């Protein structure tokens, strides 16, 4: 479990710099240059993610059950992850209503993904992993919305034609992952 926690501290710590130390982040970018900052950020993120994956894999060998999920939870988790995939795609498609409405669809995507997995997995290592991502997603979403208010950021309205793109992209990616890749990569078939 210690490798999983170390990985989470590194990965989520790097992704929290803008939340807790924006002035320090800007100073590092000025000092290192944008490419240098992005390079260091990427390396730290990759190391953290690798440790999370490794640590979670180790922890899965000796699971400590905290609860048994109800029979209906996989269906709810499927809907939540479908919404998460659509919101994730919406973060990269300009001019859609999702971005106009929630402003930070990626943070909300991570939150929904983590909630779905937290509900569907009742082991200690799952609670640590998905609980950490859920808390981080909520904090990041709130911090980003607060930063927008302070900076007076206004998001332009979206168009229905631009909404179709993230819905289709997200639904297709979700379908491929839920029905094929999740079982191959994670070893669990979420749809039965």
UniProtKB/TrEMBL annotation:
Chief site of localization: membrane
Hydrolase keyword on record: no
Entry keyword set: Membrane, Transmembrane, Transmembrane helix
Any one Pfam family match given in the protein's UniProt record, by short name: NnrU
The keyword Transmembrane is annotated on this UniProt entry: yes
Source taxon at top rank: Bacteria
Protein name, entry field: NnrU domain-containing protein
Organism: Ralstonia flaminis
């Amino acid at each position: 479990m210690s490798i999983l926690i170390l990985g989470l501290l590194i990965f989520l710590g790097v992704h929290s710099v803008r939340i807790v130390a924006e002035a320090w982040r800007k100073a590092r970018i000025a000092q290192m240059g944008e490419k240098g900052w992005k390079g260091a950020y990427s390396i730290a993120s990759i190391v953290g993610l690798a440790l999370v994956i490794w640590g979670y894999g180790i922890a899965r060998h000796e699971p400590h059950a905290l609860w048994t999920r109800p029979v209906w939870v996989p269906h709810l988790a499927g809907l939540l992850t479908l919404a998460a995939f659509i919101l994730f795609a919406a973060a990269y498609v300009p001019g859609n209503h999702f971005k106009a409405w929630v402003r930070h669809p990626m943070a909300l995507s991570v939150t929904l993904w983590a909630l779905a997995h937290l509900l569907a997995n009742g082991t200690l290592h799952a609670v640590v992993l998905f609980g950490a991502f859920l808390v981080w997603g909520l904090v990041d979403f709130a911090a980003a919305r607060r930063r927008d208010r302070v900076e007076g950021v206004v998001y332009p309205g979206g168009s229905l034609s631009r909404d179709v793109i993230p819905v289709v992209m997200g639904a297709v990616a979700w379908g491929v992952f839920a029905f094929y890749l999740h079982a191959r990569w994670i070893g669990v078939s979420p749809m039965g």
